[in-house]
């Protein structure tokens, strides 16, 4: 009998035989006490009494897949005599149970450098039905293509594997919808939350926003020479950046109130005559293990100021001149130099 059979349904059981006649013949039937079935006595046109099994309560194969009941036939003699038969009732399955996931929500964490083919996790659903009604297949629910391209589902085992490389800086969390279907078309759903864990796969990036070049050599200390921005898209310690200025230069690196912005300022006066330009190397290091670094170069030219007077090659020249030297004769040539450049270094004599 199928478990979806409606209460009130009747099943003919046939009849018992009694060779006696009259009151000593078959008079009725009794059924072993149970919660599902009752027996009713029916009489045919020829007076023969037969039994009908009546379903009183809905069956449930998952609760009781089979029943064994004793049917007794009684006569009216004194003392009465009886005969028994065993009723073996097999409850056949109906697809009255949907699949059920072991969890409504699954959670998994993956490093962003996990390779394609890496197992994310395994979802599991069960079905109380039997046979094909209990056979479960898995698939993804309706999701954006971006998510569907990242993962692949094994329809038989419920194993989710990684299909494309992850990138923490692009997406930090995925919500994957999973459906489980049984052989009768009933469906259950669950969610899988996949958290992407950061890996120190990005070096700090230094962006030069502006550079003041050339810088006048008489510029005061504290003059801002360059503005730069330092960023690292990683998170946590992997994204914490420290900066330093390599080499010797009369400049200092100062963090601004914005956090990631840095400024290069003069810490002492420049001297173009000592160095006409300065080559600066900036190095930024993150807090990862191992740390990653990024570098940038800045060339700052020094603009001349007229801070040097001309200097004669000699402080005093002594010349001996004959008294008959002709007018217009060269007596001596004096020379002076100026360390400045351009017009500041052009020397005139008087």
TrEMBL record:
GO biological process, one term: homophilic cell adhesion via plasma membrane adhesion molecules
Keyword Coiled coil belongs to the record: no
Any one annotated GO CC term: plasma membrane
SUPFAM superfamilies, per database record: Cadherin-like
Localization (cell): Cell membrane
Keywords from the named record: Calcium, Cell adhesion, Cell membrane, Glycoprotein, Membrane, Repeat, Signal, Transmembrane, Transmembrane helix
UniProt membrane topology term: Single-pass type I membrane protein
Pfam family name, one: Cadherin
InterPro entries for the chain: Cadherin-like_dom, Cadherin-like_sf, Cadherin_CS, Protocadherin/Cadherin-CA
Domain Cadherin: 1-101, 102-206, 215-312, 313-350
UniProt GO MF annotations: calcium ion binding
Coarse class of the protein's main subcellular location: membrane
Protein name: PCDGE protein
Organism: Columbina picui
């Amino acid at each position: 009998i199928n478990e979806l059979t409606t209460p009130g349904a009747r099943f003919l059981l046939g009849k018992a035989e009694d060779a006696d006649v009259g009151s000593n013949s078959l008079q009725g039937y009794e059924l072993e006490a149970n919660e599902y079935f009752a027996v009713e006595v029916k009489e045919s046109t020829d007076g023969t009494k037969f039994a009908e099994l009546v379903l009183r309560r809905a069956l449930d194969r998952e609760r009781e897949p089979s029943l064994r009941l004793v049917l007794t036939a009684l006569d009216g003699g004194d003392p009465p005599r009886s005969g028994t038969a065993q009723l073996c009732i097999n409850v056949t399955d109906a697809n009255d149970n949907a699949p059920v996931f072991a969890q409504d929500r699954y959670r998994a964490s993956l490093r962003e450098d996990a390779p394609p083919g890496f197992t994310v996790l395994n979802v599991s659903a069960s079905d109380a039905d039997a046979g094909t009604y209990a056979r479960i297949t898995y698939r993804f629910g309706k999701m954006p293509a971006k998510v569907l391209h990242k993962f692949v589902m094994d329809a038989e085992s419920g194993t989710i594997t990684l299909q494309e490389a992850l990138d923490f800086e692009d997406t930090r969390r995925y919500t994957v919808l999973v459906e489980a279907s049984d052989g009768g078309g009933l469906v259950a759903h669950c969610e899988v939350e996949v958290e992407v864990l950061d890996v120190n796969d990005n070096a700090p990036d230094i962006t030069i926003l502006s550079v003041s070049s050339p810088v006048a050599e008489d510029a005061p200390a504290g003059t801002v020479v360059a503005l730069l921005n330092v960023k690292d898209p990683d998170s946590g310690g992997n994204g914490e950046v420290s900066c330093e200025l390599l080499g010797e230069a009369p400049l200092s690196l100062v963090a601004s109130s914005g956090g990631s912005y840095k400024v290069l300022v003069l810490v002492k006066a420049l001297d173009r005559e000592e160095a006409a330009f300065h080559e600066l190397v900036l190095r930024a290091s993150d807090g990862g293990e191992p740390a990653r670094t990024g570098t940038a170069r800045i060339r700052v030219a020094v603009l001349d100021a007229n801070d040097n007077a001309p200097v004669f090659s000699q402080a005093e020249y002594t010349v001996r001149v004959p008294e008959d030297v002709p007018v217009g004769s060269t007596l001596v040539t004096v020379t002076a130099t100026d360390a400045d450049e351009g017009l500041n270094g052009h020397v005139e004599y008087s």
